Fold this protein.
Amino acid sequence: MRIIRALAYALAALVLAGSAFAADRKQQAERKQAEAEQLRAEETRRRAQLERRQAEEMERQRLEGEWQRLKALGYELLKPFRDCPDCPEMVVIPSGGFEMGSPADEVGRYGTEAPRHRVTLAKVFALGKTEVTQGQWRALMGSNPSYFSGCGDECPVEQVTWNDAQEYLLKLSKNTGQRYRLPTEAEWEYAARAGTTTPFNTGNCIHTGEANYDGNYDYNFCRGMTRNYRQRTLPVGSFAANGFALHDMHGNVWEWVEDCWHENYAGAPGDGSAWSSGPCDKRVLRGGSWKVEPRSLRSAERNWEWANDRGNGHGFRVARTLF
């Protein structure tokens, strides 16, 4: 019996030793696997950092080349210039990327502003510092179609159709030898935002001391309901410029852009080009006007009218291809 018990104890000891050995081997294998995974993760992070640094260096070189090219042509970023005494004053807008459209939680958003999507504008371009004025229109076209003609030469020209704007741009391009055009919808929103992601380039709120709109209405309890409703246009540049040195990107007059109208951004270009397919008898307007509530002044707000429609809240600003 003693021999049997001894053998049993020995067998149990062997089993325990074998289990301990197996457990130790398992722990070693798990430790090696964890170390290998950690090494792979560190390598992945290292490669990502390297790729990011390489991308940043490539972007730096691209921007430096772009700035040098601008300088050689006599332009500077965000510095106004004119091609002729009666031409609109232009501002050079830097290239870059942004999220176009409104986030799902933005107060007052419409479905036409979705889906929010990334847009990259690879080239600098020039945009009118203000909306085209009545004086600039008259100097080139020989007439003034504006309802508020008594406002003066420094007020925005209005009651112009999208087609009228194209005639002005064609004549301006011919007279100056430069490539004037309407901004694309993406260029317009990029320039209006000027690096901001809030509903307005003024922040989450806007006030009648910052834009010309119907002050009988408020936006998101911002205390912007000042009862200051001017009921007309104001001279361009009456309010402070945004971060890109542009005035009146919110309010005063709606601004025609190049794009054909689409009900949302599904399938929209991601390179900042104009959306030139679809129902092109309808054209996009951006920015709001003197007679709308502040909700319609948001940077993401989209509107449309027939290309031959004219109204005393419809104007435009010009864009210019630089190279």
